[in-house]
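R.M. (postdoc): so does anyone remember the format we settled on? I'll just put the structure tokens first.
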């Protein structure tokens, strides 16, 4: 957990506004229990009056905000509310706990994050304020930081798990083809290869399918990272994925224009494109998130395309598991991060 704590304390000073408490793991008393609960699930401890009031409304608006670029409404997190007196025993060992307290005994609104207090891995965030109005203002002012804190914590748990227990054989193949380190989760398998610039891995779960396509091409300049170029290249390579019927293949939907943002992962600049895919000449589709960056050691653009097909089941955790894979990427040490 030291790695997670370090990232949360330093990444863009994420906790500067919202976390006024410690960014150090708590000292355990003997052996730790394994944390319970599902990924992206939060137990909220708040009394009934607070939960039914404006503070509860504000908190739900933050944590239940729909995930963008999904064709079905899914919240960022799943919430379970308990009364403060019920926060004990197994509930106290949940992976994500948010404690919200309002009363005159508290001074200025504040928050504290603690790690691995009663189980591992675990994050407990405590928010306090002297009255409902100040709690609402505090939540409103720090909504993005609160959301990102839980998201980054879940992501870093997945990254660590992939590095420890992933598919080592696929990791080796990626290293051979693309010259990078990447950790693929357990259960994934190679679905297709094409030359030395295309690898498709995936995982079939119940009525859903997860896909991750890695591809690379020569870097021509900054124009490679304009939206139209990113989409054109995506279509070029994902078009190699055969559809379920003859002559069908994957393509990018344009009736809802994809969105591009530029982010940094471990100091390296990536273009993150989100949108929807469909199968030409067939009836399949779903969301995708594409990450692209420059591999300066080879003079090529490296892209990782994450897509999900799940017409019946929720997609959020499936997509996030794929995106977490990108955060395991390590380039040769000699490359500068730009």
């Amino acid at each position: 957990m030291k790695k997670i704590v370090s990232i949360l304390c330093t990444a863009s000073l994420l906790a500067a506004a919202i976390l006024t408490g410690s960014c150090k793991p708590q000292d355990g008393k003997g052996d730790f229990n394994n944390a319970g609960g599902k990924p992206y699930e939060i137990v909220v401890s708040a009394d009934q009056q607070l939960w039914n009031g404006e503070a509860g409304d504000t908190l739900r608006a933050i944590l239940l905000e729909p995930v963008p670029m999904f064709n079905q409404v899914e919240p960022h997190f799943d919430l379970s509310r308990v009364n403060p007196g019920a926060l004990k025993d197994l509930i106290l060992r949940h992976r994500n706990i948010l404690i919200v307290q309002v009363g005159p005994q508290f001074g200025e609104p504040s928050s504290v994050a603690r790690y691995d207090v009663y189980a591992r891995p675990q994050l407990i965030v405590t928010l306090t304020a002297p009255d409902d109005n100040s709690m609402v203002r505090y939540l409103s002012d720090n909504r993005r930081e609160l959301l990102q804190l839980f998201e980054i914590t879940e992501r870093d748990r997945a990254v660590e798990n992939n590095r420890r227990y992933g598919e080592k054989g696929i990791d080796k193949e990626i290293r051979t083809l693309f010259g990078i380190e990447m950790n693929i989760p357990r259960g994934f398998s190679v679905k297709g290869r094409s030359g030395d610039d295309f690898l498709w891995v995936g995982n079939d779960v119940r009525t859903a399918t997860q896909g991750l396509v890695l591809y690379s091409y020569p870097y021509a300049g900054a124009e490679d990272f304009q939206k139209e170029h990113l989409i054109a290249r995506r279509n070029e390579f994902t078009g190699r994925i055969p559809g379920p019927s003859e002559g069908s293949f994957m393509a990018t939907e344009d009736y809802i224009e994809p969105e591009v943002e530029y982010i940094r992962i471990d100091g390296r600049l990536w273009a993150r494109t989100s949108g929807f895919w469909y199968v030409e000449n067939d009836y399949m589709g779903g969301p995708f998130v594409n990450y692209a960056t420059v591999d300066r050691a080879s003079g090529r653009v490296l892209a990782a395309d994450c897509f999900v097909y799940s017409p019946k089941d929720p997609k959020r955790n499936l997509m996030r598991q794929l995106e977490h894979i990108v955060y395991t990427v390590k380039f040769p040490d000699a490359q500068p991060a730009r």
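R.M.: ...and that's the designed sequence above, right after the tokens. Also worth knowing: The two ends are 28 Å apart (CA to CA). The first helix runs from residue 2 to 10.
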